[in-house]
Amino acid sequence: MASLVTESSLTKVSASARDFLKKPKQLLIDGCWVSAASGKTFNVFDPATSDTIAQVAEGDAEDINLAVASSRRAFSGPWSQMTPSERGKIIWKLGDLVLENLDELAELESLDNGKPLAVAKIADVPLTADLFHYMAGWATKLEGNTIPISVPYAPGAKFFAYTRRDPIGVVGQIIPWNFPLLMAAWKIGPALTTGNTIILKPAEQTPLSALRLGELALEAGLPPGVLNVVTGYGETAGSALASHDDVDKIAFTGSTEVGKIIVRAAAGNLKKVTLELGGKSPTVVFKDVADIDTAVQGAANAIFFNHGQCCAAGSRLLVEKDIFDEVTQGVAEIANKIKLGAGVDGATEMGPLVSEEQRDRVSGFIKDGLEAGATALAGGNSLDEKGYFVPPTVFTNTRPEMKIVREEIFGPVVVAEPFDDLEGVMKVANSTDFGLASSIWTRDISKAHRAAEIMRAGTVWINCHNVFDAAMPFGGYKQSGWGREMGHEALELYTETKAVCVAL
Ligand code: ADP
Question: How far is the centre of ligand 1, averaged over its atoms, from the C-alpha of 252 (Å)?
Answer without folding.
Answer: 9
